[in-house]
Each structure stands twice: as C-alpha cells, then as structure tokens.
C-alpha cells in the first residue's frame, strides 16, 4: 500500500478551450491560455489498497455513479501506465465555496493526477503530468502549471500545458449565481461542435487569437492581452449560443458586469472581463487597479480577488 497527497488550484482561461479534437484522450481543437489562481485549492490523497473496488470520497461524502466512474476511468489509465491493477481510495477536499460557483474539475483532476501518479509509483515530469491531468479534464492540464499556462493543441504527445510569462495581472471574480449549471461544459462543448454554425469560425479565429495573446504576453502588453481576453470570451459565448437547442450561460447580471467593466475603461482604468460556462464574471486588471475594480464590481455581485498562484504540488498526507 502506498499513499500520496497533492494540491492544485483552479485556473481561468484568458483564451478559452471550447471544443475537442478527440474525446477519448481529451485533445483540444485549439490551444488555450490561462491564469492559475492562488485561492480555492483542492487537496487529494490517493491510497492504494487490497480492496476489490476503488473508493471515491469528495468533501467527506462517498460518491458513486458518474462522478465515481470518471475517477475510476482515470485511475484505470494511471494503472495502465504503471502496469498495476491494485485499487485505490481517493479522498479529496475542495475548498471552492459552493457559493463561488467556480469549476472544480481543473483543480480536482490536477491534484488527482499528481497524487495518483505518485501513489502508483510513476515518476512523471511536469509535461507528462500535464498530459495525464488532461485526460481527467481538459482544463486540468493547465492547473499543473504555476501562474500562466499555454495548453497546446496537438496529438497526445504534444498536447500539454507549459508556463508562459505574462504582464502583471490580478483577477476580481464576481459570483453571479452559485447554482448548478443547466448544461455541463462537456455536454455543451459537444452540442456546440455538432450544431453551432459558427463553430468552424470559432476554431480558426481562436487559433489566431492564441497567437496574438502569446505575442502580447511576450511584449508585456497588458492592454492588448486584456482586449483579446474579453473578445475571446464573448466569441465563446456567441458560438455556444449558436447551438441548437441554444445554450445561454450569461444572465442579465453577468451582462451588467461586462457593462460596468466597459465603464471603468471609459474612466481610464484598465480592466477586462471574461466568463466561463456559467454566469460568473472574472475581471482582469493590473494590481494597481484591483481595489477600485473590486469595489465597483462589488456593488453588483459578491467578489473575491485572486492572484497568479502555484502549480500542483505534493503535500504531506493529512493524519
Ligand atoms: C476553459 N472551460 O478554457 C473553458 C472555458 C469552460 C469555459 O475548460 O470535458 O471541464 O473535462 O475537458 O475542462 C471547461 O471544460 O472540460 C473549460 P472537459 P472542462 O477553461
């Protein structure tokens, strides 16, 4: 029996991942760019056992059904790599307050990839770990990496995340609605690719957008990166909305935050909004503007401030 514990944080994409080239290996149709957060870590312990079945305990509750199956499938892949077939107990604590409504699959599978690979005796470098996390959830590939990450499109060998330098930014995260989303991102991604007539344009434009965003990062050009971030998010929501049946994640309150961010810019502040597959809105800004942005957006929704955070890391197992 071996045991390993690891911790990872959520990440928010500045250039979004929305669409797969391969669903089995979770290969993205396009690359993406993200900031790993310094808040809301997931801590996961994997203990190999002599039992006949895997056990999955999330936030103190033993899971079965699809949640467990997704973890078991992931462990099966790890066991395949390790040439082992002993089962495991997975105990995971996720600190995202349910009120924050942030996706936990990225931090969850990043922490699981690190803990499971160590428990099963795999010695993976960062690249291999990112490729492994990707199989659990695409965006988890990026949570392996500290601060800012680019996750490459490509085949299984080449589709990993790695660090990029980016201008100094912080993120004001506005919680619009903490409820369960109507359509999961996995399902919505599939529907978008199958039914949205804008999907081909989303794919070609996002590939170009990523190149421009990386250029802006290299040049330390926050204004360009900010514009790209907001435009890319709105394009993602447009292609999603073009699905049949249509899917809308943004609510009137979400839109009011996009409007408030535009007003802040009109007043000379540097702030740009983005939103994932839900109504919450994340606003990026240089550190000197964070306090004002948080105050102004805080009038519309509950806010929390995040800074660039650490990549996944081993931890001492909890007693
Ligand atoms: C992203 N999202 O780039 C995009 C933007 C949500 C909106 O990655 O099917 O949970 O597990 O690979 O990673 C959410 O999708 O999907 C996501 P799977 P995942 O952050």
Features of this protein?
single chain; 319 residues; alpha+beta; Ribosomal Protein S5, domain 2; Alpha-Beta Plaits; 2 domains; six-stranded mixed beta sheet; binds ligand 2P0; lipid biosynthesis; diphosphomevalonate decarboxylase activity; Mev_diP_decarb; Ribsml_uS5_D2-typ_fold_subgr
Short description:
With 319 residues, the chain is of the alpha+beta class. It is built from nine helices and 16 strands.
Would you mind describing this structure in some detail?
InterPro entries: GHMP_kinase_C_sf (IPR036554), Mev_decarb (IPR005935), Mev_diP_decarb (IPR029765), MVD-like_N (IPR053859), Mvd1_C (IPR041431), Ribosomal_Su5_D2-typ_SF (IPR020568), Ribsml_uS5_D2-typ_fold_subgr (IPR014721). This is diphosphomevalonate decarboxylase. The protein has about 325 residues and is an alpha+beta fold. The protein folds into two domains: about 5-165, Ribosomal Protein S5, domain 2; about 170-305, 2-Layer Sandwich (Alpha-Beta Plaits), CATH 3.30.70.890. It is built from nine helices and 16 strands. The strands form four sheets. A six-stranded mixed β-sheet has the order 8-7-9-6-1-16. A four-stranded antiparallel β-sheet has the order 2-5-10-11. A four-stranded antiparallel β-sheet has the order 13-14-12-15. Strand 13 and strand 14 form a beta hairpin. The chain is globular and about 65 Å long. Bound molecules: ligand 2P0. The site of ligand 2P0 has 15 residues, from helix 5.
């Amino acid at each position: 029996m071996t045991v390993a514990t690891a911790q990872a944080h959520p990440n928010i994409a500045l250039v979004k991942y929305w669409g797969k080239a391969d669903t089995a290996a979770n290969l993205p149709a396009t690359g993406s760019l993200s900031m790993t957060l310094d808040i809301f870590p997931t801590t996961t312990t994997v203990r190999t056992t002599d039992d006949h079945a895997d056990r999955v305990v999330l936030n103190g509750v033993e899971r079965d059904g699809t949640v467990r199956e997704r973890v078991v499938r992931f462990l099966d892949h790890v066991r395949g790599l390790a040439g082992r077939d002993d089962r495991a107990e997975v105990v995971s604590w996720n600190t995202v307050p349910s009120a924050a409504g942030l996706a936990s699959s990225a931090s969850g599978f990043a922490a699981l990839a690190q803990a499971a690979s160590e428990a099963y005796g795999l010695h993976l470098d960062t690249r291999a770990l990112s490729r492994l996390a990707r199989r659990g959830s695409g965006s988890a590939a990026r949570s392996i990496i500290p601060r800012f990450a680019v996750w490459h499109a490509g085949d299984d060998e080449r589709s990993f995340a790695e660090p990029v330098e980016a201008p100094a930014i912080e993120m004001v995260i506005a919680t619009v609605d903490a409820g369960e989303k109507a359509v999961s991102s996995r399902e919505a991604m599939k529907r978008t690719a199958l039914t949205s007539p804008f999907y081909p344009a989303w794919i070609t434009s996002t590939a170009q957008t990523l190149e421009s965003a990386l250029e802006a990062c290299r040049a330390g050009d926050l204004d360009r990166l900010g514009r790209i971030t907001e435009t890319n998010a709105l394009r993602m929501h447009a292609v999603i909305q073009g699905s049949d049946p249509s899917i809308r994640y943004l609510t009137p309150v979400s839109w009011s935050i996009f409007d408030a961010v535009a007003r802040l810019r009109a007043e000379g502040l540097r702030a740009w909004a983005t939103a994932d597959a839900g109504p919450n809105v994340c606003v990026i800004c240089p550190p000197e503007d964070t306090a004002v942005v948080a105050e102004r957006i805080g009038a519309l929704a509950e806010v929390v401030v995040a800074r660039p955070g650490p990549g996944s890391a081993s931890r001492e197992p909890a007693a």
